[in-house]
Amino acid sequence: MLSYAMVGTKDLKRAGDFYDKIFDIIGAKRAMEHDTGIMWSDGNPDKPFFGVCLPHDGNEATAGNGTMISFSASSKEQVKEVYDCALANGAICEGEPGMRGESYYLSYFRDPDGNKFSTFFPVG
Predict the structure, then answer these.
(1) Which of 6, 25, 93, 94 could be cross-linked to 51 through a Cys-Cys bond (beta carbons 3.0 to 4.6 Å apart)?
(2) What domains lie within the chain, and their CATH numbers?
(3) What is the full per-residue pLDDT of the chain (124 aa) written as tens digits?
(4) Burial (0-12, 13-18, 19+ Cβ within 10 Å), 116
(5) In Å, how far are 12, 21, 60, 94, 122 from 25, measured between CA atoms?
(6) What pLDDT is stored for residue 65 in this prediction?
(7) Is residue 37 helix, strand or coil?
(8) DSSP reduced 3-state for 22
(9) In the chain, what is the straight-line distance between the N-terminal and C-terminal CA atoms, in Å?
(10) Strand 37-41, strand 104-110: pairing
(11) How far apart are CA 111 and CA 14, in angstroms?
(12) Looking at the whole model, is its pTM more than 0.70?
């Protein structure tokens, strides 16, 4: 269904450092890198890549209102670990780790560029 998801950044080095830390927890590594963008993958060709880039049109990157990307976690503990790592590296809390409904354990944060993310673990 998805091939990849990408968000814009104002500072590619800062974004690369931020996501290297997040994806180290989840088990993904840099898969592609060039002077205007970086892509990460967990090595599974059936799963989508994630990337950050400097906008192609040369305008400043802005966060999409109502746009959110969710990263899969392998446990509730990993949801919290990603959330804690994100906040320790410049993210802003958009919702602490916890149950949402009866079936989902999530956390929400905005990266240093203002893009919104969740980390998601299905319960039961």
Answers:
(1) 6
(2) 4-55+68-122 (3.10.180.10)
(3) 689 999 999 999 999 999 999 999 999 999 999 999 999 999 998 999 999 999 999 998 998 888 999 999 999 999 999 999 999 999 999 999 999 999 999 999 999 999 999 999 999 7
(4) buried
(5) 20, 7, 29, 20, 18
(6) 83
(7) strand
(8) helix
(9) 24
(10) unpaired
(11) 10
(12) yes
Separation of alpha carbons 122 and 87, rounded Å: 22
Q: Is 69 helix (H, G, I), strand (E, B) or coil?
A: strand
| Residue 88 to residue 33: CA distance in whole angstroms | 24
Instruction: Tokens for 115, please give them.
Output: 């893009």
Instruction: Give the Cα separation of 26 and 119 in Å (integer).
Output: 10
